[in-house]
Amino acid sequence: MVDGIFAIAMTILVLGISPPKPDISEAQAVLPGQIFNLFPEIFIFIIAFLILAGFWLDHHRQFHFVRTIDSHLLWINIFLLISVVLIPFSTDVAGDYPDVHVAVLLFHINILIVGLIFSYHLNYISRSNYLHDSSADRKALRVLFYQYLLIPGIAFSAVIISFFNPSASLLVYLGVPFAKYFVERFGS
Amino acid sequence: MVDGIFAIAMTILVLGISPPKPDISEAQAVLPGQIFNLFPEIFIFIIAFLILAGFWLDHHRQFHFVRTIDSHLLWINIFLLISVVLIPFSTDVAGDYPDVHVAVLLFHINILIVGLIFSYHLNYISRSNYLHDSSADRKALRVLFYQYLLIPGIAFSAVIISFFNPSASLLVYLGVPFAKYFVERFGS
Amino acid sequence: MVDGIFAIAMTILVLGISPPKPDISEAQAVLPGQIFNLFPEIFIFIIAFLILAGFWLDHHRQFHFVRTIDSHLLWINIFLLISVVLIPFSTDVAGDYPDVHVAVLLFHINILIVGLIFSYHLNYISRSNYLHDSSADRKALRVLFYQYLLIPGIAFSAVIISFFNPSASLLVYLGVPFAKYFVERFGS
Amino acid sequence: MVDGIFAIAMTILVLGISPPKPDISEAQAVLPGQIFNLFPEIFIFIIAFLILAGFWLDHHRQFHFVRTIDSHLLWINIFLLISVVLIPFSTDVAGDYPDVHVAVLLFHINILIVGLIFSYHLNYISRSNYLHDSSADRKALRVLFYQYLLIPGIAFSAVIISFFNPSASLLVYLGVPFAKYFVERFGS
């Protein structure tokens, strides 16, 4: 269920890149510029793809610790998927209007919500009794928890920055790998 | 087969939320209002996602009891999938025109049909000889049957309400969890 | 590979049903008629879904007999998938213009090609040395072969009829279950 | 993960073939010509489908040799998938404007990038210590490596040819099977 929805959401991200449709007669002259103008859209597509890929891998890593799914965990996952499935939509809007605050804000808030649900998900798992091996796993999950606060933290700072400079706020996500490296190194 | 189609139908629900496409020059002024106006669409998207997720879980629970699939059960499933695959379409229409009776009615009837096929599906399974353990299973299936009449029942009441107030009739589905709780508690 | 592509093709069939987009102000008056006019489109959607579901089940039944895939069988499958993936497109065109000969013809030819590749597929399998149990399987495959010529046969007669009455030619596929019943009964 | 994304990317290729939407009144007269004009689009769709199918099979063949996935290999795969998911987009643009250099160039560069990442992928696998059986596998991988340079090589020559004749450059990919045959025969 989760795997399929992640894969489909990641692939239909591409449908948000609107192919230019100039008249055939003008295409020779107009198309180069229009394709060049797509690069912000493709950039946001790549960022969204990477974030979704990261969430997916995290989800696998988290479920590695879980033995059984209770109905509460099921509901967390359903709301997680709802916010994941909305990402192609908010990516589309942000890609079309990377300079407009409200469009970029929609994207950041979507990522923020996914990130917060993920952190709650991890927190719930680490407190539950469904873990395979409690003592060892709790330690591993504590490390993960710091990493999971990272994405909502970065999304939150992107929200702040978007009030001053919408398009620059999209670049904040490029800091994720560096931040992850630091947390993995010093966060535990 | 069933799993993939459910996952894809749930994900392409998002394609029904039409991203606003104002001119770049006007976007700064116009986009906030247009995004705000999307909230009914996003609300209906979430309701449709939750209903589909519920159907999916129910389908898994039902198939848990089945040992072999005969050709009649196969046909029930195919017609079930046809009506499931139509949900992204009817959700799209209802999301675009939540105040127009016929648009909302299309959505309710689609949910009603899926719910009725599901009830018939359960009924067929509980009478068939393909069950693993007849006596215990029949008892469990009787409980489920009450739950399954719930969704078509709620969709039917939404149909009635839609004649008086189309957009209010969409809120009826919010009662599903409460109704489910009551049926699980007192229905058996 | 094959399963995923069938499931996706069947689900994106629904994207071919173009939701009406009247102005909000006119929607109350215009939408009922526009939704009513969608019924031919929904009818063709259901026919295409049923044909694809049938092909899918047939593919499973055929692969039941196969032990290994050689590179020739792989290529047959790739061309099969290409023509399967085109069905949502030709269904879309035929659903938009069910009275226009060329639109309906496109649909029939697409079904015809899928059906012919399937028959060739079966023929190749039944001659190959990859069968589990040659003597019993060859007999079972002979029965199947008659059934497989059925779909291209019906598509071919739909092609002929489409020259006289395009929209009536779409109804020909409703005869598939009856024809299948006869072939299963008397064809072997 | 990889399998699902390939299957979805291959299927949504079909969404790039834009169905003609003439007025109902004109459809009878105009549609035949418009459908005839779609053939270049369908031709490019088929080429893109075949290239993606080839990449998919290659990916399976490569992973056959891999025991464990380290984080570097994971990142190669994520960037591979990003460029794969972009193919439906670049195919759409090239299919709409097969005579415009920049549109066709976008397609060639996309294929080129996927091909280069694949070659790097193979190179990384063949040097890593995650192989099942080093000596035998390294020999098999050397043969594959020649085949893998083939696709970027052909895409690169298509880039060159596109400067002189955009639409002819799309035909270059028809040479892939022949080139593959020669490499398999004499390349090792």
Mind explaining what this structure looks like?
- The structure is a homotetramer of 188-residue chains.
- Chain A has nine helices and no strands.
- Chain A has helices at 2-12, 24-36, 39-63, 71-85, 87-96, 101-127, 134-162, 166-169, 176-186.
- In chain A, α3 packs antiparallel against α5, α3 packs parallel to α6 (101-127) and α4 (71-85) runs antiparallel to α6.
- The mean pLDDT of chain A is 85.
- Chain A binds chain B through residues 1, 4-5, 8-9, 12, 15-16, 74, 78, 81-82, 85-86, 88-89, 92-93, 96-97, 99-100, 102-103, 106, and chain B through 3-4, 6-8, 10-15, 17, 19-21, 24, 27-28, 31-32, 35, 42, 45-46, 49-50, 53, 56-57.
List the helices and strands and how they pair.
The structure is a homotetramer of 188-residue chains.
Chain A: H1 2-12, H2 24-36, H3 39-63, H4 71-85, H5 87-96, H6 101-127, H7 134-162, H8 166-169, H9 176-186
Percentage of residues in strands of chain A: under 5%
Biggest interface pair, counts:
A-B, 25 and 29 residues
Helix content of chain A: over 70%
* Total beta strand runs of chain A: 0
Oligomer: homotetramer
Structural class of chain A: mainly alpha
- The separation of the N and C termini of chain A measures 32 Å
- Principal-axes geometry of chain A comes out as elongated
Q: Averaging pLDDT over every residue of chain A, what do you get? A: 85
- Rg estimate of chain A, integer Å: 19 Å
The number of helical runs of chain A is: 9
Q: Major sheet of chain A: size, sense and barrel closure?
A: none
> Can you tell me the residue ranges of chain A where pLDDT is under 50 for at least 5 consecutive residues?
none
User: What is the string of SSEs of chain A from the N terminus onward?
Assistant: HHHHHHHHH
